[in-house]
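Hello,

I think I submitted the 2-phosphoglycolic acid job twice by accident. Can you confirm which output corresponds to this input? Input:
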Amino acid sequence: MERTFIVGGNWKMNGDRKGIDEIIKFLRAGSIPANNEVYIGVPSIYLDYVQQRKPKNIEVAAQNCYKVEKGAFTGEISPDMLKDLGVKWVILGHSERRAIFGESDELIAEKTAHALEKGLKVILCVGETLNERESGKTNEVVFRQTKAVADKIKDWKNVVIAYEPVWAIGTGKTATPEQAQEVHDSLRKWIADNISKEVAESIRIQYGGSVTAANAKELAKQKDIDGFLVGGASLKPEFVDIINANAKKPEESKESKK
Ligand code: PGA
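Support: Only one job matched these inputs. Its output is below.
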């Protein structure tokens, strides 16, 4: 099954209006393959600013939202508010939310279920720490994080998973294409066994963690890597090259049609 390649930027807590104008400028100037999907994860205070200025072929994503409609939850934003601005995507379960803000698997699953109920599309982040990898627990962690969500939702069509090994985030230490492919492949098998074969075949799994223009092409060749979630490099013009990482040279595209 052909899965649409999807590349997202995660600006985290970076930028101001002047810097955002620069980013919008290079995004407008760069070419985006018609078949690729692109989103940018924007700090909540700038969601509307970016939504008003973004190119049509790029969607805006929030970096978080809460698990209920409204109420006394100081500092939080709801899926309804995102929809009110025209925002279609939300990134949930990023490792920084898990580690720094103490978000549990359970809370992330509840947020995911509520966001989907409200019609948002969700990028669900999963991934192991260095300690967990070194003690051979990578699959266990990634499956546990995915299962928490599987216990709460039935329909996966508006979910994209981002596999982001914590040790690769912001460290310049990218997983090798083989390391990433191995986890993507085991996760897809877990999904086939525990959710359904259809979901396993159709769900897109992005890789994230120190993705750059220099390493994106090799990663994009892996069978189970369906795109990227890009932090640091999404603030720079090289993000456009990462968006194009799956563009095939003429001889390769002939090859793939055989
Ligand atoms: P990085 O961040 O590309 O800067 O490593 C990725 C992410 O946190 O999504």
